[in-house]
Amino acid sequence: MSVFYTRQTLTIALDKAKAENKSIGFVPTMGALHEGHLALVKRAISEVDVVVVSIFVNPTQFNNKEDLEKYPRMLSTDVAFLENTGNVLIFAPDYSEVYPLNDSFDKIELNGTDEVLEGKYRPGHFQGVMHVVRNLFQIVKPNKAYFGLKDFQQVAIIKKMVQVLNLPIEIVACPTLREKSGIAMSSRNLRLTENQKTDALIIYQTLTYLKELKHKCNPEEAKKLAKDYFMKGDLTLEYLEIVEGNTLQSLGDSWAEDSTCCIAAFCGNVRLIDTIQL
Ligand code: PAF
């Protein structure tokens, strides 16, 4: 398994692959890898010739210092985990490799899609995500990049960024992987106790309940009933919204073809998000 720490060494390896006309797939991650990441890597391996997995905890997308500090970092475990998956190139840069001194990034206007849902509660988060992903794209220059739909808004925003910047990269959105219990796989689950994992089930139960509600009432009513249901659990709700999948605008009295529910909630001091397409 090759681990590259600098953009220069990775670029040499990728240039060689590109000279041989090999297609490049890219899975950006912040490490603490789990089966959900593995599903993205496996999908990439099945679709392209060379797969790059980046492991970089990106400070510019955290608006909470404690969250950044507590984010799990376990490079050697991650490398061992990937070793069992197949042949991938691991890119584990430090800050100055991703953000060189001459780096600049102009705010990308996305018609407000980066200001609702997560964007409303984590100001600047998506500009930070776009910045790091744009920089990583510039280094890897992939043909395809793979993202998980648990971060539904992130996928929508990266797709828009690729359009706005006119990048020749196909964004592949992959389904959320869940534990047997239903809880969405996330690196943050590592910070949950067993009891908290049980408490966190209310998120998936609420999303499943909403699927039923869709046949009985309009989005506004469904949202109210779902919130009441959620409040019976022990988590602290930050938001529960039902939105149109492209504009991310809240739905009121009628369902859209792509209606999606997004939830963010605190389980103790761990912030969890989840999404379901209704
Ligand atoms: O989804 C994540 O893990 C991160 O937001 C990403 C895409 C790796 C950018 O830091």
CATH C-level label of the largest domain: Alpha Beta
The count of strands amounts to: 9
Order of helices and strands: EHEHEHHEHHHEHEHHHEEE
Multimeric status of the protein: single chain
Q: CATH topology of the largest domain, which one? A: Rossmann fold
What gap, in angstroms, lies between the N and C termini? 40 Å
Could you state the CATH homologous superfamily of the largest domain?
HUPs
Evaluate the radius of gyration.
Answer: 19 Å
* Percent of sequence in beta strands: 15-25%
What does this structure look like?
It is globular and about 55 Å long. The chain folds into 2 domains: about 1-175, Rossmann fold (3-Layer(aba) Sandwich); about 185-275, Pantoate--beta-alanine Ligase, Chain: A,domain 2. A 6-stranded parallel beta sheet has the order 1-4-3-2-5-6, sandwiched between helices. The chain has a 3-stranded antiparallel beta sheet with strand order 7-8-9, covered by helices on one side. The protein has 11 helices and 9 strands. The protein has helices at about 5-20, 35-45, 65-70, 75-85, 95-100, 120, 125-140, 150-165, 195-200, 200-215, 220-230; strands at about 1-5, 25-30, 50-55, 90, 145-150, 170-175, 235-245, 260-265, 270-275. The chain binds pantoate (PAF). Pantoate binds near residues 29, 132, 133, 151 and 154.
Descriptors for this entry?
9 strands, binds pantoate, 278 residues, globular, three-stranded antiparallel sheet, six-stranded parallel sheet, Rossmann fold, Pantoate--beta-alanine Ligase, Chain: A,domain 2, alpha/beta
